[in-house]
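User: Can you recover a sequence for this backbone? Please restate the input before giving your answer.

Assistant: Of course. Working from this structure:
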């Protein structure tokens, strides 16, 4: 549910540039994510969507530009301060990236243990069960990742991002590789998480069904720049050919 009452900006990216050797991936990228908002970033394969998420979350350093998270410019922060900010952001990786040698429970316990907080082991167990219940995976708590279906792996990846109760969740291709019905379920789950946990999210995808269902707003990344910014309905009416191309079929 959108929190329109404050309209607070939770992430601000200004004039971001990133190249690898001679390849320009992001060129003069700016965006704002509002509190409670689901912002979908659409773009073709190789457009730089994952690079954008990694720059925003401090996983890769940008060449130029400012990234302001929760009112802090991340370039002003020392490592400890940046790590503390990162704990407030959940990351659902492209392809789930679960630890294959750990059960679902252990995959969720890992970030909880690493956060070194003062929660007892028993309490951690309750948190894990509650989160798994929320993503519809309670019965799979003792399964290994290899025993999970594609949709279940996506759910587990989301559950692992949720255990630290992040205020922001970054979703990298949450529905890619899933059949339409499972993809629909995961999109519904993303909405449910937004509602229940009151998170703000950037959702990177090229799945238009997921974009329509989950977005409060959509930005389209093409040729290293954003070419459109608006609601699904407003972009659907946009006459620009490169925008219209996303709405074919
Ligand atoms: N660590 C890296 N070193 C060098 N080049 C990279 C690196 N990471 C990404 N790239 C390049 O940056 C470009 C954008 O990659 P990115 O992974 O962001 O694409 P994407 O939009 O997420 O695509 P997909 O939809 O296929 O996931 C690609 O050409 C890729 O080869
Ligand atoms: Mg990617």
């Amino acid at each position: 549910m959108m929190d329109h009452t404050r309209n607070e900006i939770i992430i601000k990216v200004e004039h971001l540039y990133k190249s690898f050797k001679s390849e320009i991936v992001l060129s003069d990228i700016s965006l704002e994510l509002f509190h409670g908002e689901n912002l979908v970033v659409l773009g073709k394969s190789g457009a730089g969507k994952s690079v954008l998420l990694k720059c925003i979350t401090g996983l890769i350093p940008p060449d130029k530009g400012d990234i302001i998270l929760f009112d802090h410019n991340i370039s002003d922060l020392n490592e400890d301060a940046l790590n503390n900010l990162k704990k407030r952001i959940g990351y659902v990786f492209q392809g789930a990236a679960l630890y294959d040698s750990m059960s679902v429970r252990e995959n969720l316990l890992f970030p909880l243990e690493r956060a070194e907080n003062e929660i007892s082991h028993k309490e951690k167990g309750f948190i894990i069960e509650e989160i798994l219940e929320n993503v519809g995976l309670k019965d799979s708590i003792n399964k290994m990742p290899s025993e999970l279906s594609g949709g279940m792996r996506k759910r587990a990846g989301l559950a692992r991002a949720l255990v630290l109760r992040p205020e922001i969740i970054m979703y990298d291709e949450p529905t890619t590789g899933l059949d339409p019905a499972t993809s629909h379920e995961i999109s519904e789950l993303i909405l449910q998480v937004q509602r229940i946990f009151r998170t703000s999210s950037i959702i990177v995808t090229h799945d238009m069904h997921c974009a329509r269902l989950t977005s409060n707003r959509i930005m389209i990344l093409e040729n290293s720049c954003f070419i459109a910014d608006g609601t699904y309905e407003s972009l659907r009416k946009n006459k620009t050919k490169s925008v219209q191309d996303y709405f074919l079929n």
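That completes the design. The chain is about 35% helix and 25% strand.
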